[in-house]
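User: structure tokens for this one?
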Amino acid sequence: MWHTLRRQGIDIGREQTARLMRLAGVAGKGKGKSPITTRKPKGPDNRPDLVNRDFTAHRPNQLWVADITYVRTRKGFVYTAFVMDVFSRRIVGWALSDSMRTEALPLQALNQAIVCAEETTGVIHHSDHGAQYVSLVYNERLAEHKIVASTGRVGDSYANALAENVNGSYKNELIHNRPWDDVVDVEIATFASVTWWNETRLHQGLGYRTPAEVESEFCKSNSGQEIIEIKANA
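Assistant:
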């Protein structure tokens, strides 16, 4: 809240912000635990761990993390799959369905991420050991676009921590705020939430910037470097 006020040109201290929030009865929401939503695969998972808890990237489309979460509605559970670019924290792919089948949920999110990316060759795709991410159809799509599959070690609760953090923020900032009717109700709200996440939300891990700002700054810097290289080659 303090960072948001300062960005809006309001000259206010951190402690004053906290005091005014207490007086107004405003407080940040804590994140609770979520049940496991991915099914364990029947066969072995031979994907390596190419991340080893180091969720850092130096450019867009270098490392993606993916996971699935659930939403309780009046008509039953629906499920949301996200793919996030680690460099900018942008949600590059998402899908929502009342089924956890690979083709209906995570594959749709992956397809969206692939379409949004200019280049996917060498992108590391990191996920948990859920059956959806081990499935043949999912890994065929990764291989088709030269995306490298990765997964954390079994029993390591931090192996896919960044993707789980996205799920926690989604549940905490949107889903837990009101009851939901059905899959359509959640899908409409999720679309708006993803747009807000990418374009407006300040991320602590980005130095209280938005994903859009981080990508814009990278593009400007990268474009300048390309101009230098072109002149040098000329």
